[in-house]
């Protein structure tokens, strides 16, 4: 006869739990901080969630990757960049409670163009988490942000992202056939 575990035995390592406001591992990439609220190992590798605080003027350049991403503005105003029908970068300002859904492989950027701090919540998959955690550095909450990003750290991040088809994108001009194009930018071509 097969003996199945009791509900209490199943819940021992697999139960709902509260995540406090100040709880979560912190990853630093350049001068950005991500606080992990849900990591893949705790979600059955289905999704990952992080909060990111953006100081005025900070952000993430135009890039793309083969997995969708969702952003929800928690504080302030955050501008999200996308490529419009004319092939130019356009910025969509989003306020508290507004969100952006980025499909897989859609070029996108994030920036705090305001004079006030801003905070967002992002949901994506474990591959995205892997890029951010292995390309960044784990830090403590009270560690000071660097004045400017370390070029070696940014190169490491770019190299890790490339392993998962994550690339910075540079908008180009007419390709000679009347079509606009974008170019994937590697660490070496910068």
SSE map:
Elements lengths: L6 H5 L14 E4 L2 E7 L9 E7 L4 E6 L4 E7 L2 E6 L5 E6 L4 E4 L5 E4 L6 E7 L1 H10 L1 E3 L11 H13 L3 E8 L5 E6 L5
Antiparallel strand pairs: 1-2, 1-11, 2-3, 3-10, 4-9, 4-12, 5-8, 5-10, 6-7, 6-9, 12-13
Structure report:
The protein has 190 residues and is mainly beta. It has one domain: Jelly Rolls (Sandwich), CATH 2.60.120.10. 15% of the residues lie in helices and 39% in strands. It has 3 helices and 13 strands; from the N terminus they run H-E-E-E-E-E-E-E-E-E-E-H-E-H-E-E. It has helices at residues 7-11, 126-135, 151-163, and strands spanning 26-29, 32-38, 48-54, 59-64, 69-75, 78-83, 89-94, 99-102, 108-111, 118-124, 137-139, 167-174, 180-185. A 7-stranded antiparallel beta sheet has the order 8-5-10-3-2-1-11. Strands 7-6-9-4-12-13 form a 6-stranded antiparallel beta sheet.
Count every beta strand, where a strand is a DSSP E run of 2 or more residues: 13
Q: DSSP strand (E) fraction? A: 35-45%
Which architecture does the CATH hierarchy give at level 2? Sandwich
Counting DSSP H or I runs of 4 or more residues, the number of helices is 3
What does the oligomeric state look like here?
single chain
Give the termini separation: 65 Å
- Helix share bin: 10-25%
What structural category do the secondary elements indicate? mainly beta
**CATH level 3 topology:** Jelly Rolls
What is the H/E order?
HEEEEEEEEEEHEHEE
3D shape: globular
Number of domains: 1
């Amino acid at each position: 006869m097969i003996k199945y575990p009791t509900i209490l035995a199943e819940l021992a390592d697999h139960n709902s739990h509260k995540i406090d406001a100040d709880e979560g591992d912190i990853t630093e990439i350049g001068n950005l901080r991500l606080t992990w609220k849900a990591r893949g190992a705790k979600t059955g590798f289905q999704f990952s969630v992080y909060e990111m605080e953006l100081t005025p003027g900070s952000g993430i350049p135009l890039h793309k990757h083969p997995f969708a991403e969702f952003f929800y503005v928690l504080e302030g105003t955050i501008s999200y960049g996308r490529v419009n029908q004319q092939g130019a970068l356009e910025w969509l300002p989003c306020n508290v409670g507004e969100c952006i859904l980025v499909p897989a492989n859609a070029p996108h950027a994030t920036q705090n163009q305001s004079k006030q701090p801003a905070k967002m919540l992002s949901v994506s998959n474990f591959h995205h988490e892997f890029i951010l955690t292995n390309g960044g550095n784990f830090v403590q909450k009270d560690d000071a942000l660097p004045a400017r990003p370390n070029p070696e750290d940014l190169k490491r991040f770019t190299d890790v992202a490339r392993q998962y088809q994550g690339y910075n994108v540079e908008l180009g001009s007419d390709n000679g056939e009347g079509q606009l194009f974008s170019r994937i930018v590697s660490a070496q071509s910068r």
